[in-house]
Amino acid sequence: MANIKSQIKRNKTNEGRRLRNKSVKSELKTRIKTAVTSVENGDENSVAAIRIAVKKLDKAASAGVIHKNQAARRKGRLMARLAKLNQNQ
Fold this sequence. Notes:
mainly alpha; elongated
């Protein structure tokens, strides 16, 4: 445990941020998984699921939870899946 007052304070803020980031990342995984499964199953609301996933990715990137390039890469992969499905139909 830290002895310096500023480091004790820093540890508290880091823990709060860690928990917030953890919940955001967990929701990201859930939304992406939902979007991917709906695209693969050919659901009619797959576009809405992708839209929600993209929105969550953008919010996470703007909050600094994930890097903006990682968000762009994940969005690109989602869109590629959707385009591949539409091309096969």
